[in-house]
Amino acid sequence: MSCICVIHHSSDPYWQGVELRRQVLRLPLGLDFSEADLEAERSQIHIVAKGQDAVIGTLLLAETDAQTLKMRQVAVALDHQGHGVGKRLIESAEKFARDHGYSEITLHARLSVFKFYERLGYHAVGPEFSEVSIPHKAMQKSLKCLVTDRHEKNGPI
């Protein structure tokens, strides 16, 4: 069983998550991260699933506006896919968002995982588009919570 937690940019789990994202999301497309890409993540929220010895899942949340977070770079280790790790990561991200006063999460889903997000309550908005050379759909989910001042809330998931 994995534990889900918020981590700090540049921590050891962060770098494990970067390598996981590189292996699962970037290298199969012939892409990699630049130093500027990783520096831009400093202001984002990093959530990981930790297995016994390593990070087995990761995602980032970036604030779009005072009510909305954009979920990005969701990756689960290939040998852990299909075992609920991704679902637990998403549910933890949604709880974090609610606890910190956000009312909506948006994302760009690769078509290969579109149905996964639909099963978790996300719905498509707008037409299909190309991003990082592959087809995507913009999706969103209302968290239907009372929005409070997130500055009064603190603590991890």
Descriptive report:
- The protein has 157 residues and is α+β, with helices and mostly antiparallel strands.
- The chain contains four helices and eight strands, in the order βααβββαβαβββ.
- Strands 1, 2, 3, 4, 5, 6, 7 and 8 form an eight-stranded mixed sheet that branches.
- A hairpin with a 2-residue loop joins β7 and β8.
- The protein is globular.
- The C terminus is likely disordered.
Question: How would you sum up this structure in a few lines?
Answer:
By secondary structure, the chain is of the alpha+beta class. About 25% of the residues lie in helices and about 35% in strands. It contains four helices and eight strands; from the N terminus they run E-H-H-E-E-E-H-E-H-E-E-E.
Name its key features.
157 residues, eight-stranded mixed sheet, alpha+beta, 27% helix, 4 helices
Shape, principal axes of CA atoms: globular
Reading the helices and strands in chain order gives EHHEEEHEHEEE
CA-based gyration radius: 15 Å
Task: For the record, give the distance between the C-alpha atoms at the N and C termini, rounded to a whole number.
Answer: 17 Å
Strand content: 25-35%
